[in-house]
Design a protein that fits this description.
Elements: E1 5-8, H1 13-26, E2 31-35, E3 47-50, H2 56-66, E4 70-73, H3 79-84, H4 86-107, E5 111-113, E6 116-117, H5 141-160, E7 163-165, E8 167-169, E9 171-173, H6 186-196, E10 199-202, E11 210-214, H7 215-227, E12 239-240, E13 244-246, H8 248-258, E14 263-266, H9 271-277, H10 286-292, H11 300-314
Parallel strand pairs: 1-2, 1-4, 2-3, 4-5, 5-7, 6-8, 8-12, 9-11, 10-14
Antiparallel strand pairs: 11-13
Helix pairs in contact: 1-7, 2-4, 4-5, 6-8, 8-11
The protein binds 2-amino-3-ketobutyric acid (AKB).
Length: about 325
């Protein structure tokens, strides 16, 4: 079957790179990118349609026009910005998802990808090797909306047969598009600043370990999950994905191996520290490995090397 894919929230950090990978896989004509903002560039044969996921009428006419076989819903407000605008974060993260799920049921669009996050875990979840199933008491509005979204996804799968698939993304590290408003963003800013000024002041404390993943791995995982046979999938809420866990000290050490003059300092009292403290330090991803043969490629050293090479080449 020929796939037609709509990516909602396609101009963001993950959407930009996922769109490139999906265009390579299915051809540009099959991928419709959409966002409330126009993209900075649009290649020949690439299709973009402006749409707001909170506007159900607009969304439905987009789906009716292109008759997608798959939808990727990436429009969301991340953890740090969410704490500044909790009502807006809840509205976008929940109602955007609800709109897509409802229209998908109405128009019989079966296959949907929607990302969750490590933010679904909270202060009483195990901190190390956090398992798929455990106490979950997120205390950021972002985490609360993602956990509610996971329950909603599983509900729509069970009740309406939607083939919805999801990953609990760790912090995603990339050089092509900058992230916006996340707690894990320091692990990207550090590379840009290391090359630009040779220094970085980190807003998280030196020993704050968090699960992260290089963009190549995150995109590969997402497409691998979407390609997996439905009968192999035992999780319809969202899959844990481990990635690589490190502290600011550890990433700074890795950067210093390549840029020996790099200097790291720390700023105390940033509100993102409170969010980071409530999240796992590392994740266990047995279900992803078993159900769809997930394997990580980039460890911290490989990621740091690739980031710096690409930023130097493109900077
Ligand atoms: C954030 O920091 O908010 C995101 C996430 C871990 O979901 N990168």
């Amino acid at each position: 079957m020929k796939e037609t894919i709509i990516i909602l929230g396609a101009n963001g950090q993950i959407g930009t790179e996922l769109a490139m990978a999906l265009r390579n896989k299915f051809g540009s004509q099959q991928i419709i990118t959409s966002d409330i903002r126009e993209p900075q560039t649009l290649g020949e044969n690439e299709i973009f349609e402006p749409a707001n996921v909170l506007d159900k009428v607009e969304l439905k006419s987009l789906f009716l026009k292109h008759k997608p076989t798959q939808i990727y819903l990436l429009a969301a407000m991340l953890s740090a910005t969410g704490e500044q605008y909790p009502q807006k974060a809840w509205d976008l993260n929940m109602n955007g998802l609800l709109n897509v799920l409802d229209i998908a049921v109405e128009l019989d669009i079966k296959k949907i990808f929607w990302p969750s996050s490590i933010a679904v875990f909270g202060p009483h979840s195990p901190k190390k090797n956090t398992p798929q199933y455990c106490v979950m008491d997120p205390n950021s509005i972002y985490g609360i909306s993602k956990l509610a979204g996971e329950r909603l996804s599983e509900y729509y799968h069970n009740k309406y047969g939607l083939d919805i698939r999801s990953i609990r993304y760790p912090g995603i590290i990339s050089w092509k598009t900058q992230p916006g408003g996340g707690t894990t963003d320091y692990a990207i800013h550090i590379f840009f600043e290391a090359l630009r000024t040779g220094k970085y002041q980190c807003f998280l404390s030196e020993d704050t370990a968090l699960p992260m993943m290089y963009m190549e791995d995150a995109v590969r995982a997402t497409i691998q999950l979407m390609d997996a046979p439905a009968e192999n999938l035992t999780i319809r809420s969202s899959y844990n994905l481990a990635g690589v866990s490190f502290t600011p000290t550890e990433i700074a050490k890795e950067i210093k191996k390549i840029l020996p003059n790099f200097e790291m300092s720390y700023k105390e009292g940033d509100p993102r520290q409170t969010i980071a403290n409530s999240w796992p330090q590392s994740i266990e991803d047995d279900y992803a490995r078993k159900d769809w043969n997930w394997e990580l490629e980039f460890d911290l050293a490989a990621m740091a090397k690739d980031m710096i090479n690409n930023l130097k080449r493109n900077g």
